Amino acid sequence: MTEKKQPKTATASRRKFLTGAAGAVAGGAAMIAAPQVSRAQTVTLKMQGSWGKADIFNEMALEYVDRVQKMAGGRLKIDYLVSGAVVKAFQVQDACHKGVLDAAHTVTAYWYGKNKAASLFGTGPVFGANAAQILAWIHKGGGKELYRELVQDILGLNLVGFFAMPMPTQPLGWFKKRITSVDDLKGLKYRTVGLATDIMQGMGLRVTQLPGGEIVPALERGVIEAFEYNNPTSDSRFGAHDVSKIYMMGSYHQAAEFFEIIFNKDKFESLPAEHQAILEYAAEAASTSNYGTAMDNYSRDLQKLINEHGVKVYRTPQSVMNAQLESWDRVLEKLTKDAFFKKVVDSQRAWSERVAFYDLMNSADYKLAFEHYFPGRLGF
After folding, report:
1. How far is the C-alpha of 187 from the C-alpha of 326, rounded, in Å?
2. Same domain, yes or no: 104 and 246
3. Do residue 177 and residue 162 come from a single domain?
4. Which of 9, 10, 43, 359 qualifies as a FRET site for 377, CA 20 to 30 Å off?
5. Which residues contact 94 (CB under 8 A, 6 or more apart)?
6. From the DSSP assignment, how many helices (H) and strands (E) are in the chain?
7. Nearby residues of 47 by Cβ (< 8 Å), 6 or more positions away
8. CATH number at residue 154
């Protein structure tokens, strides 16, 4: 039987298709084989923290730095410096605004003297939501937009900022004797920062604002008699237990604080979009890592304070915490006369009512479970 010949046009079309397909496969393989390397130029940013050399907060800042550099494949680097290397702890914001620093790792309470609403982004009122839930408000409840409005529109600062690490409730602090009532606090010369200053002053304390590294020298000079800083690890590293042996835990003065990671706005916006994204989202990654570091270290160091340094740890009396809430009421009544301050507080309050309601209705009773397996350990 004679083989039927294909038309020349069909043969040519098949040959053209097969050749093109082979070329496409080869080209695709080449594209897959080629490494996807960032084309951005290498940039080094100078960042300073607000933390003394021994403070665990520097380690947390470096967890952020490490994530930025690894995600950027070495093309975005951060030269991290401890407090005092360029400016003092409370001056990092001004240094970033002016371009003396490219970036800083700090907290908003350290610059609330510019506008008391700053403290609402880290040392604000407690409406029932915890730190993780207020950090969620920053990300999903309008907080970051309000923060930008305060920093850029109201204060006119050349800055952008991100938040990380929902800090556990900060202890009431270190005292010479156990606090059993509000009367024990009245007249004490006490260190704290941010709106916590207003709250504690409203309860009759004489408050001084100091960075962590200046607390022990102030105690030795008699400038203060009692103080709070942040957590068992930071407190023990600067020697709090050497000057006081009574540690009161639980408080409403700073129950929802976070790190503020800021950048000079001009410098930030000069970076490629991929680097801007890395700087923003590395804060979210560091937040998880920071919290794990906190839980590991804070819990271990609290036991060391008790077992190795003879520190007596007590739960702050309910009467003192009730008085703190009443002091918050008075402070808010006064400060919400400012329209922007009120706008932020109203936003947090509405968020807390919804989110804290869900959490409190749904959460397991963790204290009950702890006492079931470790009876008698808590003592309250």
Report:
1. 18
2. no
3. no
4. 359
5. 87
6. 14, 11
7. 61, 65, 78, 79, 80, 81, 101, 102, 103, 104, 105
8. 3.40.190.170
The parent domain of residue 232 ranges over 173-253+310-373
Same-domain check for residues 234 and 349: yes
**Is residue 89 a contact partner of residue 71, using CB atoms and an 8 Å limit?**
no
Helix runs in the chain, H state only = 8-33, 56-71, 92-98, 131-140, 143-148, 195-201, 215-221, 232-237, 240-243, 265-270, 273-307, 318-335, 339-362, 366-373
Residue 330's CATH number: 3.40.190.10
Give the residue from 232, 265, 295 where a domain finishes. 295
How far apart, in whole angstroms, are the C-alpha atoms of residue 287 and residue 222?
Answer: 37
Q: Which two tokens stand for residue 274?
A: 């991929």
Q: What is the SS3 string spanning 327-365?
A: HHHHHHHHHCCCHHHHHHHHHHHHHHHHHHHHHHHHCCC
The residue written with tokens 């040519």 in the block is 12
Is 351 found in the same domain as 235? yes
Q: How far is CA 25 from CA 12, 28, 33, 34, 153, in A?
A: 20, 5, 12, 14, 54
Nearest-angstrom CA–CA distance, 324 and 318: 10
Assigned domain for 10 exists: no
What dihedral do alpha carbons 236, 240, 246, 247 form, nearest 10°? -50
Over its length of 380 residues, how does the chain's per-residue pLDDT go in tens digits?
444 444 444 444 444 433 444 444 444 444 444 444 455 579 999 999 999 999 999 999 999 999 999 999 989 999 999 999 999 999 999 999 999 999 999 999 999 999 999 999 999 999 999 999 999 999 999 999 999 999 999 999 999 999 999 999 999 999 999 999 999 999 999 999 999 999 999 999 999 998 888 898 898 888 999 999 999 999 999 899 999 999 999 999 999 999 999 999 999 999 999 999 999 999 999 999 999 999 999 999 999 999 999 999 999 999 999 999 999 999 999 999 999 999 999 999 999 999 999 999 999 999 999 999 999 999 88
CB 194 within 8 A of CB 112: yes
Instruction: Indicate if 230 and 356 belong to the same structural domain.
Output: yes
Q: Which residue reads 């496969």 in tokens?
A: 25
For tokens 């409840």, the residue is 141
